[in-house]
From TrEMBL:
The keyword Transmembrane helix does not apply. GO terms for molecular function: manganese ion binding; metalloaminopeptidase activity. Presumably involved in the processing and regular turnover of intracellular proteins. Catalyzes the removal of unsubstituted N-terminal amino acids from various peptides. Mn(2+) 2 binds at residues 258, 263, 281, 342. This is Probable cytosol aminopeptidase. The gene is pepA. Mn(2+) 1 binds at residues 263, 340, 342. It comes from Gluconobacter cerinus.
Length: 493
């Protein structure tokens, strides 16, 4: 994890090789004192390179100078101004910080500065830099390069104490994102429901309360839908309840995650191509756990509860069959027509149980639920479904503020009727057209009158291309969004 500190710009001299990155905003970049200092130290090479590259301080523009002077091993210039002239915000600076950290190559430590007009965003630049340098290297036995890797970054701040105070919360959030990325990146032969549970239990050291429901406890409670999914696997299921108590007697905010540690599809088996990515089908649960870690580490003044259903969906002589009927915790019966529509079965029991036992202020579930949402929205936005306009609006705005986009999808009775079963209360699929919506309608049958939102994060959890603040692979999408959403509730408390 990239070590972050805040301080002043180091002296640009021959005392030691140094790398410096500067985030600039528009044409004002060239009038900034830090730019001028760097330009002087490089005998004008920085301004010449910026001119040659057509650098205007806009988003996506980067200039890199390698060994520009005896006292500097590298200088990086990164733009963050919107091309439409709109005001620079935290997301643009975070992305610029990430781009700068990625560009700082072959150095172990460096400095990151911002032009004076955006200096207030120093903590956000630090967050972007840390997120960008994430690397899941646990199973690599050889170094990809012998060159130094960036380990420490000094972020230049005009008010160091203020920056450090704001960084405390962002540091907690970054650790939550990394935890989520780590969990999603783990292979399924390592991260079973049991080992996932152990990872969660280790978070007790942050102050979180952890309660585990094993298979026997869930059988006694009547978790027929979740246990039906799990019955084909030798790895036994768990439901794990995580509590953060920071809000006195207030009803908790509840976050529920789908945790299918590997999804073969069951008897309705998936195609072989791409099945390796089904280790990520626990992305919703990983996001909930990352969020709870962040809330605990920053001591959020709210009551929050995270509940995750952890199962493995496998093929065996014990596996659930298409056509089986199960009885859920709520007492409603479900005809299982497709064993690959298993996530909604897991969530059905966990949602209903959370509603009944904890009587939360609201519930938000997260799940890599459907391929259909990826067809609809691609990989830039997650699907948002809700029975509560205020809740949906709050989540949408939180996503905008941190650059994790949501798009609200329709729901309604006409869709809901499509999952009625002839021989049970409902069936777990209703046909291909609008299937992401039908999945949400299925979940809605288990939340009662509680304000509820469902985030289908199938397209945003794992990406095959890198972004400014994330490498290829697990993104940690949702941790920052939900943390921002929780903060809005803190402000109203």
């Amino acid at each position: 994890m990239l070590d972050i500190s805040f301080g002043s710009l180091p002296a640009l001299n021959d005392a030691q090789p140094q790398a410096v990155a500067l985030i600039g905003h528009g044409k004002a970049t060239f009038e900034d004192s830090t730019f001028k200092a760097l330009d002087d130290a490089t005998a004008g090479a920085l301004s010449r390179a910026a001119s040659f590259k057509g650098f205007k301080g806009e988003v996506g523009q980067i200039v890199v100078l390698t060994a520009p002077s005896a006292g500097l091993s590298q200088v990086v210039l990164v733009g963050c101004a919107a091309k439409d002239g709109s005001a620079v915000g935290s997301v643009a600076v975070e992305n610029a910080g990430g781009s700068a950290a990625k560009a700082l190559d072959g150095v172990a430590d460096a400095a990151l500065a911002l032009t004076a007009d955006i200096a207030e965003f120093a903590p956000e630049a630090a967050l972007g830099a840390r997120l960008a340098r994430y690397d899941f290297a646990l199973y690599r036995t050889k170094k990809s390069s012998e060159r130094p890797v960036l380990k420490a970054l000094t972020v230049v701040a005009s008010d160091v104490a203020a920056a450090e105070a704001r960084w405390t919360a962002l540091d907690a959030v970054s650790r939550g994102v990394f935890l989520t990325r780590d969990l999603i990146s783990e292979p399924a032969n390592i991260l079973s429901p049991e080992t996932f549970t152990a990872r969660i239990e280790a978070l007790r050291e942050t102050g979180l309360e952890v309660e585990v429901l094993d298979e026997a406890a869930m059988q006694e409670l009547g978790f027929g839908a979740l246990l039906g999914v799990a019955q084909g696997s030798a790895n036994k299921p768990r439901t794990v309840i995580v509590r953060h108590n920071g809000g006195g007697d207030e009803a908790p905010l509840a976050f529920i995650g789908k945790g299918v540690t590997f999804d073969s599809g069951g008897i309705s088996i998936k195609p072989a191509a791409g099945m390796d990515e089904m280790k990520t089908d626990m992305g919703g649960a990983a996001t909930v756990i990352g969020l709870m870690s962040a809330l605990a580490r920053r001591k959020a003044p709210v009551n929050a509860i995270g509940v995750v259903g952890l199962v493995e969906n496998m093929v065996s002589d014990r596996a659930q069959r298409p056509g089986d009927i199960v009885t859920s915790y709520s007492g409603q019966t479900i005809e299982v027509l497709n064993t690959d529509a298993e996530g909604r079965l897991v969530l059905a029991d966990v949602l209903a149980y959370t509603k009944d036992r904890f009587k939360p202020k609201l519930m938000v579930d997260l799940a890599t639920l459907t391929g259909a949402i990826v067809v609809s929205l691609g990989t830039e936005n997650a699907g948002l479904f809700s029975n509560d306009d205020t809740l949906a609006s709050g989540l949408f705005e939180a996503g905008k503020q941190v650059g994790e986009g949501l798009w609200r999808m329709p729901m309604g009775e006409a869709y809901n009727r499509q999952i009625d079963s002839d021989i049970a209360d409902m069936k777990n699929i209703g046909g291909r057209p609008g299937s992401a919506i039908l999945a949400a309608e299925f979940l809605k049958r288990f939340v009662g009158e509680t304000g509820w939102a469902h985030l289908d994060i199938a397209g945003t959890t794992w990406k095959t291309t890198a972004s400014p603040t994330a490498p290829k692979g697990a993104t940690g999408f949702g941790v920052r969004l939900l943390n921002q959403f929780v903060q809005s509730h803190e402000a109203r408390a």
